[in-house]
Structures are given as structure tokens and as C-alpha cells.
Amino acid sequence: MTDIHRQMTKYILKSCKEQKPPKFFAIKRAAFFRIPDERIPSLTDTPVPISSEEKKSFKSSQKHATKKRTGHFLPCRLKRRKNLFNKGIHMRTHFLRCRYHLLLTLIICIGITSNDAMAEDKYPLSLGQAVYVPAYSHIYIGDREHPFYLTVTLSIRNTDPGTPLTLATADYFDSSGKFLKKYVATPVILGPFSSVRYLVNESDKTGGSGASFLVRWSATKPINQPIIESIMIGTQSQQGISFTSRGQVIIEGAK
Hints:
It is a single chain. The protein is α+β, with helices and mostly antiparallel strands. It has three helices and twelve strands, in the order H-H-H-E-E-E-E-E-E-E-E-E-E-E-E. The protein has helices at 3-17, 26-33, 52-122; strands at 126-134, 138-141, 146-149, 151-157, 165-173, 179-182, 188-190, 195-200, 212-223, 227-236, 239-246, 248-250. A hairpin with a 4-residue loop joins strand 2 and strand 3.
């Protein structure tokens, strides 16, 4: 290849690289159609326009070269940009998903903790308590306030599954708060899930409609609070009545 061929080839390649189609001169015709050296003008000669057919042929070649060049490089760039874009979307989606899972885990942990705290607040463990239990030796019915006498049962249940409790006292009082009877002479130990009951007969009318019990219990370590309640039941003239009354923890000696 002569120096002129090299110069023309370099010029054509430079024009293609800049994506600017060269002007249609005879110098380009020599490069594409391999015109003999004697017909190739020098770079200093005045360019001679070519015919329309040669111009169409050159356009077709230029179009093919541009298509081949852009088809080789442009899709790679687009693919690389697309990959980076997809990677960014994937990372953002992964971040949002992780943040969602972290938030959900945090909400669940807070819910569990709050439930545990509420359970502890509502059902606290205790080493011992004094419990006031309402009781009704009789109630009144009708406009004339006719007394309806009842049998009273005091029920004490240890609800702790692993620790016994010690029942110290179970005292019975009438409506005016006067002490009537002591049901526990010596401390009674109630094992896990065990219970004990004390009975006030229907014929015992001393308690009245405002009778009550005072129960004291203790344990060696904090345990679930026992269930302490009274059960009233009675029948009269084919009519039966029954109901319960749950005990209330009190603080003795409060000022």
C-alpha cells in the first residue's frame, strides 16, 4: 500500500470515528474502489465531484460501516448502563426489603415486650397478700325486702404450677365489721394447683348481707396470685339463686 493509500485510509477512518460522513470527492472513490495509483489525485489537487451512482454506493457503504460500528459498541454501552441501572434498582429494592423486615421485626419485638409488660402489670407475681372477700349470708327480694338466706363457700386456689403457698388466716366478719369466726387455726400449705374451701351454713344468719372474709397468704418466692372468691347459693319456693364474688387485695396499715 502506498503512502497516498495510507493517508486516504487514515482520513476515512478518522471521518468514520467522528461519525461525520466525508464529502463525496474522487479521493474517497479511490480509497473505496481501489483506483489504480495513476488515477489517484494527490491531497493538494482540486477535488472532483463523483457521479450519483458512485455517491449512492458510497452512502450504502458508509451506512453499513456506521451500522456495524454502532452495532458493535453502542449496545455494549447500553447493556453496561442497563446493568448498572438494574444493579442500582436491585440494591435499592434489597435495602427497602431489609428495612421493611427490620421494621416488622422491631414491631413484633415491641408487641411481645409490651404484651409481657402488660401481663406482668395485670398479673404481677407476689410473695404474699391480704385479700378482702365480700360474702352474703342473705340477700333481700321483693318490695317488702324479704330476706333470702344463702349458703356461703369461701374458695382459695393456688394458681402457681411449681410453688406452694401458705394460708395464714381466713377470718369471717359480719356487716358491721365485727369479727365472727376464725376458719384457719394453724397455717395451711396449699401445693401447686391445689385448693381449699370453707363453708358458712345457710342457717348461720350472723353475717348478714354485708359479711366478708379476710384472707392472708404468703410464699417463699414470688408466685402467681391465687384465686380467692366466695360462692353464694340458695333455694326457696322452687326458686334458686347463685352467684360469686371475687376477692380484692388490700394494703393493711395504709395511712
